[in-house]
Amino acid sequence: MQFTSEQRLDDGILEREFTLGEIPGTLWTPESAAPTPLILMAHNNGLPKAQPRLVARARHTASYGYAVATIDAAGCGDRPRSAADEQVRAELRRAMQAGEPVDEIFESLIGPLVEKAVPEWRTTLDALLTLPEIGGPVGYSGWTALGIHLAAVDPRIAAAGFFAGGFVPRAQREEARQVTVPLLLLLQWDDEGNPRQRALDLFDAFGSKEKTLHANLGGHVGTPWFEVEDGGRFYDRHLK
Amino acid sequence: MQFTSEQRLDDGILEREFTLGEIPGTLWTPESAAPTPLILMAHNNGLPKAQPRLVARARHTASYGYAVATIDAAGCGDRPRSAADEQVRAELRRAMQAGEPVDEIFESLIGPLVEKAVPEWRTTLDALLTLPEIGGPVGYSGWTALGIHLAAVDPRIAAAGFFAGGFVPRAQREEARQVTVPLLLLLQWDDEGNPRQRALDLFDAFGSKEKTLHANLGGHVGTPWFEVEDGGRFYDRHLK
């Protein structure tokens, strides 16, 4: 793990870019004498780690006393894409513009993306946990499909916050019952591209004994800011 | 409004019993130099104001810096019941034990209860707002059907927190679209007596532009304690 740049933000948080082999990542750490818990943060559908809403959320979460890390996993963000991937994405754009059903295209795009991304997130987690400024336990925040697979296969994930606004492949809808950590599912009630009933069914399917759904009126990008604060308190209950 | 008894609780909150004509009530006020906002708190289906879970919630909410008031409105709690009311309640118990449908019995019981209770809550609100220790604005917490009718007819209600675990008569299901204040609806995902879909439909029906649903796994009385704290922050956003 090599740090390639760093900047100290106004509130004392250290923001560092790193690479781990081919994986580019960003790590935010608060000023703290003791090692802090860690939250892995990912965008639904593999959106770039530099996306401003993710960065704002990561910085704010770090200010609550967490190390926060994100990566562009294989095929995600600005990582190179295979010709096959490019073709599926072109087909997705065409189908969306034509108003055609897109579920099967999403399935063929997001399914493999999750399968390839999870090992890189685990490798990153291995490396992060060797840093002296990071202790345990480990939480997860964001991309639902990735987080389901990660929490199902990696027992180090102790609590998970998911945003329902993303496509969840069949494999992860099945796998949801294997997720048993405390979880918070965030739903935008009128999310244009993500049917409400699927999110409610997913919430029902999770195996966790402690699970909470927060739904707010509005479209995909309308999540109210107070949900970041509510998320912080959710992690505080389980990671501190 | 006559105070009939008072006790100072360990955390400095003053708990006073009062009567207002035939209406018995309880008022909790925190130690505060300035007048505080007020939250009216009622139990679903007209359960008694002295019910321990309501009292615990009221005391805790007062500790956040709110005056909290509850009453036994006409026909509710320990207030005298008409022979007709007693008959409907006996029929309800019989039908529940026999496993028969109870919706129409609840309709004939709760519908009139809400109609008769709301004027008494408004009279109580008039009196409470004359007390020097209480300022505005006014929030509402608890019994959904009562709160819908109250918020629809009384513009002094500025924010409402509802608990979905109670029967909502047809008139209030219709009236929900006239409720436009910020609201928080609390749902127990596996509430034995209250179908989940009705609560989701009700959430959808409210006219409020800012509305949030919190759902937690578990049965009717299993609401996690952190929801009282979340409720406190909801009121803080809108009443302070």
TrEMBL record, chains A, B:
This is Alpha/beta hydrolase. It comes from Streptomyces formicae. The lineage of its organism: Bacteria, Bacillati, Actinomycetota, Actinomycetes, Kitasatosporales.
